[in-house]
Every structure is written in C-alpha cells, then in structure tokens.
C-alpha cells in the first residue's frame, strides 16, 4: 500500500533568475527519484494561481511568499525524497555548465562546405572522402570556393576526374586524387600518412603506398619530407595526362624547402611519362624517378636519376642531398668521366643558326641492333612516341622501315633492310643514303649514329661518314635549319681503324662524339626536350606556393578519422556534418542541379 | 535566369525597408479589405473544421468580443452557418502571434515602410495568462480586450502620433544588443518601447489614472513590443516579396494545424504541410502530450532574420535549446547555412557583430536538408488553457521541397 504524496516547499528571497533558468531547475527537480512534480516560480500572484490550480500550493507557502521571492514546491512519494529534492535547489542553481573552450565556434559542425569556409577562412584544402557518386560534386564545390582538394574517394568516373582536373588547372588549384590515399602538406599528413620528419625531399606520385614507403624509408635514413603530393592512381593515364603530376612537380620545383624531388608511380602511359619527365628535366633540382614495373631508361638523364626500386629511390634522394651538402664536390661516378669530357651534356649555345620552328624530331640510324635497342629504352622515356623497326616496349612499330615518322630509330642491320646487301657495319651505302634523306627532312632536328670499330668492321667508317655529316649539316644550314648530329663510337685505342683518328674526323665534321649509349641518349633527350621548349603552349596559372605552406588549415568532408588526425597533428580543421544533397532524394538533387545550371547560364 | 541576382535584389529591398510605427487604429479602418464578418487568423488558409483548439477558441472569443454571438454555442453556430469569413492575416498585410485572430473592432498597430510606402499590421499584445491568442474567451479575456481597445489603443495612437512614428528597425537592432532575439525574448525591446512611449503617453493621457494603468500594463508585459516587431518584420519581408526568379522565403506562418511558407518569386501561393509540436520546456503540470501543434505568425521574425536566427544574441534563453551559450551560437551559425545574406542592420555582439543570417533560400534548405529553426511559445491544445511552455521547432522540409518543385516548374526546368 502506497503512502499519500507529500508536498514540501522552500523560498529564496531577493533572488532574480530568468524564468527559463527556473524552468530548467524545475525540470531537473522533477527528474529526481521519488519526485512526482515540482514547481519553481517567482511568487507573483499569477504564478501562485497557476500552482494552486496544479495542486502545488501549500497553504503556508501561499501566505508566506512575497512577490519577489523564488518559490520552490516539490511533491514527492516520501518526506525523504522531498527533502532530498529541496536540498538540491541551491547546488542546481549554482551549477554552471563547463565552458567549451576558448573558441566558442570550435564545437560547431557546419552542414555545408560554404559554411565551413566561413568558419575557417584560412582553410586552403578540402579533404573529400564521401561516397564516390557524391564526391565529384563536393570537389567541384571546393574548387568553386577556390580551395585545393584532397580527393580520397574512389569510384569517381574518369570523365569526372578529367573535368575536375581541367577546372582545377584553370584556377591554379590542385586536385589530389581521386583515390588519393596520402599527402603531407606543410608538415601535416592528410588521409593515410606516416609520421615522418619534416625535411627537404619533396615526393610526388601516382601511388599512395609507394609514397608512404619512400617517405618512411627517407625517415629511416635520417632524411625528411618537405611535401608529399599524391596525384591519384589514374593521373598518369593517357586520358588524364598527368594533369595533377605536372602541377605538383611545378609546385615542388618552386618550393624553397624542397631540395630533391622523388617521383614514383605505377607504370604511366608512355607519352604522359615523356611529357612529365621532360618537365622534370627543367625542374632545376635533382629528380629521382621510379615507375614501379618499368625498367629504368638510364641511370641518369640530366637532373633525372632513375632508381630501380622504391627503397633505391629513397637512398638515391638521400645520396643526392648528401652530395649537395658535401663540403667538396663528390668525385664523378664511374662512367661519368666521359660525359664530363663533353663539358656540358647540353649544348651551351644552340647551334648556329638556331633550329627552325618546325624542327623537332630525332632520327637514329644504327648499325648495331643491341645498341639500337639500348638507345630506344632510354630515348623512349622522354621522346614518346618513338617509332622503330625493332620490337621494343619503349617504341611503337614503324610500319614501313623505309619511311621514318616522328621520332624514329632504325636498326639498319635488320633483315628486311639488309636483303641482298652486306651488313651496314661493313657497307655504309644504306647509312649514307638514309643520312642524306633524313637530314633533308625539315622536321628533323637531330640525327644519332653509331660507329662500331674493330676487326671485321669497315676499315675507315669515319672516312666516308664524316664528309657526309658535314654535307648534311651544311645542307640543312643552307635551308635555314640547324642539324645536330651525335655519334656513338664503340671501339678501343687498339682497334685497327685508330680510335683517336676516327673520333677526330667525326668531331671535325660537327658531330658530337659519345663513347657510351647512355651519354648519347642523355644528350639527345636534353637537346630535343630543350628545343621543344621553344613552342610556347598556353600555360595554366601556377598553383600558388601558399598551397603547401605551413601551418595547414583544412576542411574535412567525410571520414571523421581524417578530421581527428588533422586535429591531433595540430592542424586547424573543421569537420562538415555532410549529408547527400536533398537527403539523397535524386529527383530533388537533379532539380537543384538544373537550377544551378540555369542560374549560371543566366 | 539569374536566381542569385534576384535574391540580391530582394534582400536589397528588405534591408532598405524602414518600418515605422505610425498609428494605432481599429482594424476596419486600418486594414484594407477588413469587414465586420471577416476574421483574420494566423498561418495559411484553414477551414473551421480543421482548426485546432486554440484557434477555435480565439475565433469564438473574437465573435463574443464583436457582439456577433452571445455565447460559445452561438458563436460556433454562426461559423457553421457560414456567416463568418476567415482569411489569413498575411492576405491583408497583417500578422498576429499564436492564433492571431483579429476582428474589425480590434485596434491594430500600423507600421509603414518609409522607403517603399507599403503598410503592415498587427494586433495588440494581451500579456501572459488567459488570453485570446491562446484561445481563451472567458469574460475576463473579453474585458481585457475591451479595455485594451477602448482605453489603451487610442492613447497609444496619440502617443505614436505625437512621436511622429517610432523607428522599429532601430529598436530591434538595439534590443539584439541587449539580449533579445526578438521572438521568444522581447524583454529589452519591450522596455525600450516603454521608454519611447512613456513621456508621450503621459502627455497624451487625460487626467486621472489612465496613464499609470497603461504604463503598468505595457511595463508588466515582456512581450508588449512583440506585435509591433512582428509588423515591422512583415513590412521588411513584404518588401522582398514578388521579385521574379527569387527563391527567398518571404513568409513562414502556422495556423495550429499547418505550417505554410510563401516565396518571393512564387506569388501569393502557400506551400503547406502539417505543423509539428515544438520541443522545449514546459510549465509545471504540463508536458508534450498537452501541446498544440505549432501556431502563430510570429515566425515572421525568423523570416526577417531575427528570432531563432539571432539566438546567439540571447544567451539568457538558451535553456530550451540545450543550455549553454555555445548552443545559442551554434543555432545562429546553423542558419547562416541556409540564408543568402548577413543582415545589414541587425548584428550580434557575440559573433563580432556579424549581421544576423537573413533571407532563407529554398535551394539551400532543400540541398542541405536543413529547415529553418523557429523559436516559439507552446500553446495548450485545448482552447483557453494558454501558454504551457516555450521551445523551438522546425517547419516540415516538405514545404520547401514543394516550393522548389513549383519554382522549377514555373521556369520550365
């Protein structure tokens, strides 16, 4: 059998509290165990009337309370519960909610990207990791707001990627991704990133884990990372064309903190690699290159250093840093002495007269099949496409070996050209006729030859070749063109032809003489990429260096873990409480899209 | 089509609007189209059959006050014989809190937009307790209405005339700096209003105790300025209405059954859906089960960029939205997400004097799935019980979606 409820009251004199504070107190009292009802009011007549109507006005209270008193009435199951509740009044009134910290806005999670930007205007980056079908629209909104995008989301269509990157380029903004796993910007890791020392090696790559591996290895070797920019796995495909890689490379080139650049990735489309490496040649900094699964075209091409593995890339970068900071210049590496003999690998002055505007192709006329194949592997990295009658992964098949096109490298000793005649190492007839023909081609800028000495070979290859080179160069000059000729001489000072005499004869004809394929490849690549610079294309605006300056401030749309990671690294970050547009209602979302288009069109 | 430009133009008109309280006069004189058998009510159009308790009670009270019926049953019979017409206040340039019922003999505030020349109207505030706007129609309610209309209103009219118009935009701006948000908290604004009126009332009043009674009535009511503020908001919102291609909301109103909105570029059409029950704190003895669905034209304040949108200005009343001043800041910050501008005249000290979020853009509401917040009193669902709490609510998203679809259809999209 339950006891009848008890009603107890208390008054506080001269206390002013906002009525809403009192309602809060009343709710708190009402929620206490054993409390059936509670009232907390200023004891003005109207309120007393209300209490009376609710059966919450003890007669004594009605008589005692004055209008400016705070009146507390509790109806409870027991005397004890009522007493407990009344004892809680002052502590509850005194209770202050904890301050949320120094920044009153810190706890607010905006729903829109625009709202986040109002909250953190300093944010230059937007991290996007929402479901793929929404990701492109969020990325586009970020670009429209003038922000760089770290696009972690996958399942963004190739067409969207191309469109986004085109928009970004036009605005001088970066889109890292889609499917970009990692980046280190201004010392802060985005997405999946290892905690690595800040340093002077700038990383760039179309491979998230590749970048992480190199970054970690650099850290292990005592070096550090200035920036790491993932481009997304499809950036180096023919369709995307390395759009982000080019911007990122240019950014690292200009970044004063970056001393050495490391470029890694899955195998790129050859023309994309060629354009990217061509740009890298002009970086003005050492660039270490490793494309996983692609043979290195050379050990070195100008400032490009090719590494065979990811860890070799890290080691090479560290060695280059050490060399740059060594008190005395390092001794030339083996095989480099010959290159040094050539003074600079790039002609210090363009040949006189300078190349005509139409001149841009290399023609290689090789008597040695393996020399030709070796040259192709190196040249193919930068001169793409290159055509050949040889089968090589670095080259495209030349349909008619008698008809060169674009960059062409011919093995003159191939069966289809030597039918009914001696091998070109013995008989120069084919070489000389082809040399005359190629040099007359107004699109040809350089010709690369090999001269193989030794027993059994032609007794004096330079004897006929040097005058032919002179004639070819003179003919080109007469037509207003400059023809560069390089000759690889394979032989020894004991060979019967006389190595020195052969070299002298070729050199006096105006040919540049090399002792290794690598040197010739380097020279060819540097010369041809250099004259290609003369063709100005409409340059998109450069990405401002501010994009990668510390401290990082970013807005995160998607995975909360990325926001937590940024915050734990001390970066300023705002998490967007993102939802699919129109709550995922595709009809309304489509309608919003049409309105947006119509609005822009107007 | 240039929606953004249209919205900027609409906002420019809203910010240029300068609402002055210029007169207090009987509705039949002041409000165009007002007539003896017409009752104005809050919210979108509604029939007697669908009216909620408080609105029905207010209708009965108004008919008793007008002498058109002698008792509750007579009033109901009059309505059921279709002898009384109903129209939303909004159809006559007017607004009214809660039931918003306004009849021909009731005095209304006349607010004139000094920039554009149009007028807006609102009835007089009765204070707390048993009041018509919550559906009470007992003799004391009718008696109070009679005193307000016959004694106080003429005096207010004279005081306002003596003052040459009261600048309500300036009053609202000042009140926001004194802890009001202009909808649920009007303590500061009501004191400012009292301060402006007091000397003029004293001068206009006849000998005797009338001035004292009127000043006490106004001073005891922390909502006395709510109605002029609502009329000012109506004037400002109407200035932004009717701009072709604009997606801004120019009216939000509830009749206790439906929540309705109007859109600048969509003419006089209402978009409606059932109104929700507010969340909030309840007076002793009441709970959510007693509450009527959301009611009143007072959401015109949020439409004009104050009320819940200016919550960050009113930390004293944060208890019903979570309890900390940060919650108040967050409430205002959230509304920047769905609005097109920051108010030129209404600013918030706690946000470094940023303008309040103003100009609800349909597109943003639908895209973000984020309906406006509105602060509100909570009415008992039965006529005449009165206010049982205070809280906040959001209009149903569906009405913004309907409006967006209509906008797209209008423009062939």
Mean pLDDT of chain A: 88
Which word captures the global form of chain B? globular
Low-confidence segments of chain B, given as residue ranges, are none
| Extended strand count of chain A | 23
Average predicted confidence as pLDDT of chain B: 95
- Contiguous helical run count of chain B: 13
Strand order of the largest sheet of chain B: 4-6-5-1-7
Helix content of chain A: 25-40%
Structural class of chain B, please? alpha+beta
Question: Please, could you describe this protein's structure?
Answer:
The complex is a heterodimer of chains A (602) and B (413). In chain A, a hairpin with a 2-residue loop joins strand 7 (182-185) and strand 8 (188-191). In chain A, helix 17 (461-478) packs parallel to helix 18. Chain A is of the alpha/beta class and 602 residues long. Chain A is built from 21 helices and 23 strands. Chain A is rod-shaped. Chain B has 413 residues and is of the alpha+beta class. In chain B, 37% of the residues lie in helices and 21% in strands. Chain B has helices spanning 3-16, 27-30, 53-65, 72-80, 139-163, 168-176, 187-204, 210-220, 226-239, 300-303, 325-336, 362-368, 397-410, and strands at 19-26, 38-41, 85-88, 94-95, 107-113, 119-123, 166-167, 249-255, 258-263, 271-274, 279-282, 295-296, 339-348, 354-360, 374-379, 387-393. Chain B has a five-stranded mixed sheet with strand order 4-6-5-1-7. Chain B has a four-stranded antiparallel sheet with strand order 10-9-8-12. In chain B, strands 11-16-15 form a three-stranded antiparallel sheet, with no helix packed on it. In chain B, a hairpin with a 7-residue loop joins strand 15 (374-379) and strand 16 (387-393). Chain B starts with a helix and ends with a helix. Chains A and B meet through helix 1, strand 2, helix 2, helix 6 and helix 21 of A and helix 1, helix 11, helix 12 and helix 13 of B.
